[in-house]
């Protein structure tokens, strides 16, 4: 009897499984109303957020290979080491000019005390220097002789074994500072090379701004940026480029805040400061993390222009990071901060006849950058922020009503800080609020559950900037977070909700952007790099897929007359692109079962019989991309058939699908 009962239960379970499988294979019918435009999709909808975290700038996108090139770190010789060859003797002495040259007070005096051999120093770079066989590297140095004896400089690249893989010579002349340049051709590839600068001949020579750049940079600009890293961004076709952060805008203290005026002009006069991520996390202390500002506000604007993206600078509002010191500048002294905003508008947009427009022109860009947005503060909260924002808004509205003002609801998507600011900013009568910046660092489940977050937002209120978001696969700020498919797919589900609500949401960007595999502080991150390579994570692939398939107008995609917001694990949004006359569908299947979608398109005379579907998919929710397998999760495109204004789409488990079909 017991055996018979077990058999019956087993059969029933089998029938249930078969029934579930049959149900999964049945077509799920969706209706697309292609002629019912709900909202325009802002050209800025999908963009890029940059912050100098995880060696994102120095040691990252800024292609300088020498660490502490002007001896301005708190430990002046950090990154450098004394070198002797052939019995040479000498001394290395750092001189500090102090206020006489505030932007770059220190230089190094090399005294050679022997006639034989070579004496000098080596630089370890940022976790080594990545060099490639056959590539050229430009060495620069500011130097002056201190005696009639001419000391020559031998410049070498050496590999991890200390063997020479490239060399050049420089002979400084005269007692005045002058920049010298030499070109080294690498004879081998090494991700951990070092630079040697060795003096030959008895006497003294002063050195400053010792620098090494690959000749191959983005757009071949001297002393420019890593082309592979910028290319990954350009490939996204971002609508905006937000810079320079992020918490780095705030600083741990106000003295350490980001001050844009110190980041422009000749690079040897840009005043270095500590990076606020230097000591932020005890588990990832980075004592050699500083900001040289070789990548400064001019370069940020230039990069935005290169990518066809709207520049979006964020400025300090008179408040340091509230997670650190929470320092504030007194309201009576806030005018300096507001003036920085006014001067930035002039620097970006002013004519060459204005003081700050002239500075832009002197840097090689007489045409304005046509900046349209400014963010006031980063992740501030509380009454002290509201008070300072109002002061900014009053002046900026009076003098530059054409500039859109972006404000913040703090670091969290909910809670008392969020609720206070969200209510206060929306009810303001005495200050303009154009766009509110919301941030979400939450678990993958949160992103799937919040695809409807903006369905009920006021269409007539301030617009939304989803300024920072990333799925935290373990916990917020955990070093164990991964850029896995579960997180990326969940973000895609959430992003369909952003796109459906394009009448409210006008900007969105993943954060953080870059991370060096040996120098990171925060995970997860969109793009990972080492000294020679870079790759986009599954999260990058999702962001790129949405950004390059944006469309111009949102139209409804419905299932049972309701938006597709998680029914059977499915999420969807639809746009049309009036420029190409295409229908674009984005469908995310977060379930572990394949699903058959049938999309019935109303409101068009005809669809072309062939379209394309681009798919991101993995059966393994823990799948990541790696240096060894950078394309583990990458887009696969194929043609699909269209018949009688119906699109049949088989959706694999755990997949993100983007369909494009021409309309007529």
TrEMBL record:
UniProt signal peptide: 1-24
UniProt keywords, alphabetically: Glycoprotein, Hydrolase, Signal
Protein EC: 3.2.1.55
Coiled coil region boundaries: none
Any one GO BP annotation for this protein: L-arabinose metabolic process
GO molecular function, one term: alpha-L-arabinofuranosidase activity
Positions of the Alpha-L-arabinofuranosidase C-terminal domain: 467-655
Catalyses which reaction(s): Hydrolysis of terminal non-reducing alpha-L-arabinofuranoside residues in alpha-L-arabinosides
Family label: Belongs to the glycosyl hydrolase 51 family.
Protein name in the entry: non-reducing end alpha-L-arabinofuranosidase
Source organism per UniProt: Pontibacter akesuensis
Lineage, top ranks: Bacteria, Pseudomonadati, Bacteroidota, Cytophagia, Cytophagales
């Amino acid at each position: 009897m017991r055996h018979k009962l077990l058999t019956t239960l087993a059969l029933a379970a089998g029938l249930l499984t078969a029934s579930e499988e049959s149900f999964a294979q049945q077509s799920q019918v969706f209706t697309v109303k292609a002629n019912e435009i709900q909202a325009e999709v802002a050209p800025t909808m999908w963009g890029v957020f940059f912050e100098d975290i995880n060696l994102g700038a120095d040691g990252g996108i800024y292609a300088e290979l020498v660490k502490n090139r002007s001896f301005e770190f708190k430990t002046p010789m950090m990154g450098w080491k004394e070198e002797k060859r052939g019995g040479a003797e000498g001394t290395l002495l750092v001189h500090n000019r102090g206020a006489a040259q505030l932007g770059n007070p220190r230089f190094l005096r090399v005294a050679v005390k022997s006639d034989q051999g070579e004496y000098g120093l080596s630089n370890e770079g940022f976790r080594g220097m990545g060099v490639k066989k056959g590539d050229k590297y430009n060495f620069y140095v500011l130097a002056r002789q201190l005696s009639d004896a001419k000391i020559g400089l031998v410049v070498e690249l050496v590999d991890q074994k200390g063997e020479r893989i490239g060399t050049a010579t420089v002979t400084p002349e005269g007692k005045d500072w002058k920049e010298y340049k030499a070109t080294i051709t690498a004879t081998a590839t090494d991700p951990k090379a070092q630079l040697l600068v060795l003096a030959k001949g008895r006497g003294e020579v002063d050195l400053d701004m010792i620098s090494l750049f690959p000749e191959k940079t983005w757009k071949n600009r001297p002393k420019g940026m890593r082309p592979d890293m910028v290319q990954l961004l350009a490939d996204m076709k971002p609508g905006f480029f937000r810079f320079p952060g992020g918490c780095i805008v705030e600083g741990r203290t106000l003295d350490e805040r980001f001050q844009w005026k110190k980041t422009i002009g000749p690079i040897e006069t840009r005043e270095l400061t500590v990076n606020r991520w230097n000591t932020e996390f005890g588990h990832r202390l980075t004592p050699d993390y500083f900001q040289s500002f070789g990548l400064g506000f001019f370069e940020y604007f230039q990069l935005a222009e290169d990518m066809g993206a709207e520049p979006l600078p964020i400025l300090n509002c008179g408040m340091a990071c509230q997670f650190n010191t929470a320092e504030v500048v007194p309201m009576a002294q806030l005018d300096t901060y507001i003036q920085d905003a006014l001067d930035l508008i002039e620097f970006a947009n002013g004519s060459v006849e204005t003081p700050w427009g002239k500075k832009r022109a002197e840097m090689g860009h007489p045409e304005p950058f046509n900046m349209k947005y400014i963010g006031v503060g980063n992740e501030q909260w509380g009454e002290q922020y509201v008070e300072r924002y109002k002061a900014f808004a009053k002046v900026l509205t009076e003098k530059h009503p054409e500039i859109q003002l972006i404000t913040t609801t703090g670091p969290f998507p909910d809670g008392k800080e969020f609720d206070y600011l969200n209510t206060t900013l929306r009810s303001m009568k005495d200050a303009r609020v154009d766009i509110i910046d919301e941030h979400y660092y939450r678990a993958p489940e949160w992103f799937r559950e919040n695809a409807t977050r903006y369905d009920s937002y006021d269409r007539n209120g301030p617009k939304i900037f989803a300024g920072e978001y990333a799925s935290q696969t373990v916990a917020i700020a955990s070093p164990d977070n991964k850029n896995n498919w579960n997180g990326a797919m969940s973000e895609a589900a959430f992003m369909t909700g952003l796109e459906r609500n394009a009448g409210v949401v006008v900007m969105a960007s993943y954060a953080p952007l870059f991370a060096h595999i040996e120098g990171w502080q925060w995970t997860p991150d969109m793009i990972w790099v080492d000294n020679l390579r870079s790759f986009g994570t599954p999260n990058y692939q999702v962001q790129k897929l949405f950004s390059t398939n944006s469309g111009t107008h949102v139209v409804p995609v419905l299932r049972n007359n309701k938006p597709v917001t998680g029914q059977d694990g499915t999420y969807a949004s639809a746009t049309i692109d009036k420029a190409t006359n295409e229908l674009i569908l984005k469908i995310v299947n977060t379930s572990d079962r394949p699903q058959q979608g049938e999309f019935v398109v109303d409101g068009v005379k005809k669809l072309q019989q062939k379209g394309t579907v681009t798919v991101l998919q993995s059966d393994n929710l823990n799948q990541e991309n790696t240096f060894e397998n950078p394309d583990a999760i990458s887009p696969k495109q194929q043609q699909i058939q269209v018949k009688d204004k119906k699109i049949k789409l088989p959706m694999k488990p755990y997949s993100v699908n983007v369909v494009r079909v021409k309309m007529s």
